[in-house]
Amino acid sequence: MDVAVIGLGLIGGSVLRALASTGHRVLGYDADPATRATARTAAAQAPADGRWQVARTVRDAVARAELVVIAVPLPAVAGVLDELASAGYTGLVTDVTSIKGPVQALVDRHLRVGSDRLAGFVGGHPMAGRETSGFGAADPSLFTGCAWVLCLEPGSTSLADWLEVAELITRLNARVVPAVADEHDRAVAAVSHVPHLMASALAAVAADDPLAGTLGAGSFRDGTRVAATRPDLVAAMCGGNAAAVGPALDAVLDALVRARAALDGPDPIDGLRTWLEPGSAARLAWPPRGGTPVELPAESDALLRLGRAGGWVTRVADDRRTVTAVRPAHRDPA
Amino acid sequence: MDVAVIGLGLIGGSVLRALASTGHRVLGYDADPATRATARTAAAQAPADGRWQVARTVRDAVARAELVVIAVPLPAVAGVLDELASAGYTGLVTDVTSIKGPVQALVDRHLRVGSDRLAGFVGGHPMAGRETSGFGAADPSLFTGCAWVLCLEPGSTSLADWLEVAELITRLNARVVPAVADEHDRAVAAVSHVPHLMASALAAVAADDPLAGTLGAGSFRDGTRVAATRPDLVAAMCGGNAAAVGPALDAVLDALVRARAALDGPDPIDGLRTWLEPGSAARLAWPPRGGTPVELPAESDALLRLGRAGGWVTRVADDRRTVTAVRPAHRDPA
């Protein structure tokens, strides 16, 4: 398949390398000339079976593409969509942005206007962050075993398009998770955006006491690790998903207010023990382990039910009529 | 020095091995016969310069001791203190329990009654938790570089006793942090106890949505790691320190409520960026890096000021008149 990857940071660069190493013809592009030069040098050193090329413009990159992967930060997505529209691109488009509702809205506004044939869009999000960034950190095996959401919007995403992209992503050894954009945005609010806010609150409050900073050990180190992320990136991620992050943060605040009441109660130790049990059981059961793979019909309802149950797709059948699906196995706390 | 270590779990076992390897004569004891047998077997296999012995009773363990290290969980501390009192023990006592105010209160009630000569007590807390537990996980190098609080209670701790214990602990390569019990309990509430409660809240809330569990990645894994700790242990730790954990949790709740308001504000991205900056700067400046070592007079006020400033002691001079102290170096965020 001819694929264009627009944006060659950690994720885009890793997608480029992973797709090239699975036999696709890949053209990359990045708005930053230095990044393009780095990628070109790396391409010249790549083995023959994992080679890609670097284009000088978005238009050049997508000229022959059947699939475009948009791997730029959210604020730059609209500009790329405009370039695709002005290039008359009508193939498949996916993205790797961490919020899906807003991207879907941008696609409706910027890509699907003024062209006779419409490009097909399947929103995506690989859950594969890392401390490192930039093309230099790109790793073709970054997605092995990682959850990769592909949005299946009723009335918007074509099932055929979804299966086409899903087929490609499963070959990167990712777990393809079908979801609608709203479900995705609510879930990442709970497991990614709220954790960033909590880490920041914890780090800021402890900073008021130098003694506390000196006594911080494992629980503080891990609980605050992502607080070191650049504030503008976290603000864009959480603020761009404010409608979902608000209620997710409320749920955590409610739980902590109950812990606070237990601390003031007649028996804080007993009250907290009861309060702590659900979180302990949940963490012992996480991450979900897959049960026995089953064949599922490749239909929207079945796929979305699978995603809601915490399941994922590991393979799309060649005839695109079924998928191999894995549901989380029930696991008793150790 | 003749030292008895009562309680041979991860911390007690590591203290035993670390002290034995620095040349002390160490006798260990554990209430659990199986743990005593494990420790005896390990003693037989230990090199000649790191050998210790295992006693059959607390009384036997402390009969010749100049220092007793109490390394049992908080609920068992009173019983050990009673045994020391009934054995007529009048040497030095320290402990490794994670809350210091309540232990000081137990010492006043259980150890310092009914004996003509009083045992000297210096409360301690090495910040060296680990996932593993039990004597089998004990490691003589566990304390290298770790902060180890030694309490210096005005009107209660003898400075000579403090310096004696501090001298011993610095030789385990730990950073000895002088503090009063209340300061310690407030600091660990912020950097250890509240992080445990937050991890639990995060894990419990995400468990409501199977999709969220499947999408959880690095920020969720790290932000919830300590939620898997046994609820009874966390409840004892946080509930036993309720007076300090309550206000520390309030401070974090206040910060999160301000983040919540930013999410509802006219520009969530801009509002959150401002809100995130202190936490990001704080985390980038953590852990504190030591500045140039200086000599300080070995006096209570100077030592406590050092601890409040986030500093620590690395050496006690042979004449016990000065200590080598390190204050955190100012560090610009990267």
From TrEMBL, chains A, B:
InterPro entries, per database record:
6-PGluconate_DH-like_C_sf (IPR008927), NAD(P)-bd_dom_sf (IPR036291), PDH_C (IPR046825), PDH_N (IPR046826), Preph/Arog_dehydrog (IPR050812), Prephen_DH (IPR003099)
Q: What class of enzyme is it?
A: oxidoreductase
Q: Which domain of life is it from?
A: Bacteria
Membrane spanning residue stretches: none
Q: Which residues form the Prephenate/arogenate dehydrogenase domain?
A: 1-294
In Gene Ontology terms, what is one molecular function of this protein? prephenate dehydrogenase (NAD+) activity
Q: Name one GO biological process term.
A: tyrosine biosynthetic process
Q: Which PROSITE patterns match?
A: PDH_ADH (PS51176)
Stored Gene3D superfamilies: 6-phosphogluconate dehydrogenase C-terminal like domain (1.10.3660.10), NAD(P)-binding Rossmann-like Domain (3.40.50.720)
Name the Enzyme Commission number(s) assigned to this protein: 1.3.1.12
Q: Name one Pfam family in it.
A: PDH_N
Keyword set for this entry? Oxidoreductase
Q: Member of which family?
A: Belongs to the prephenate/arogenate dehydrogenase family.
Output this protein's name: Prephenate dehydrogenase
Organism, by scientific name, is: Plantactinospora soyae
